[in-house]
From TrEMBL:
Taxonomic lineage from the root: Bacteria, Bacillati, Bacillota, Bacilli, Bacillales
Protein name from the UniProt record: Uncharacterized protein
The species this protein was found in: Paenibacillus ihbetae
Domain of life: Bacteria
InterPro entries: AlkZ-like
Pfam families: AlkZ-like (PF06224)
Length: 131
């Protein structure tokens, strides 16, 4: 996907104001973005998912979507502004500090190398966070 296509999908997902399963999101996103988003090119669990789903984690990182309540065996997504009243995304620096803080609370004491492995991040970059 191009960066423009990712931005388009994230914009479409920002309009989600009710709990929706991935199947429901498939219909909504493909209907809004067009047939290119429906191309089944993402290998997952022995099948192929539509192209738009590549942008799903990015939408979460940008604060557009979060997990909603389960519907039986299916999970849903929803806007964090609706699900978490008063939600305001943190700036990157503050969010990163919170990740380190909560990691150390759960797994500490820990070294920067251990955190880098857990986060799947470059050890030199993580070492700067710990200094």
């Amino acid at each position: 996907m191009t960066l423009e296509q990712i931005d388009e999908i994230v914009e479409v997902l920002s309009a989600v104001h009710t709990e929706m399963t991935t199947d429901e999101l498939d219909e909504a996103v493909i209907g809004a973005a067009g047939s290119w988003a429906a191309n089944r090119v993402v290998p997952a669990f022995g099948e192929m998912w539509p192209r738009w789903r590549i942008a799903l984690p990015i939408a979460g990182i940008r604060g557009t979507l979060c997990y909603g309540p389960n519907r039986g065996r299916k999970f849903t997504y929803i806007s964090p502004h609706r699900h978490l009243l008063g939600f305001q995304p943190m700036d990157g620096h503050t969010a990163l500090n919170q990740v380190v803080k909560h990691y150390l609370y759960a797994y500490g004491p820990a070294t920067s190398q251990q955190f880098a492995k857990w986060l799947n991040a470059p050890p030199k970059w993580v070492a700067k966070l710990f200094s």
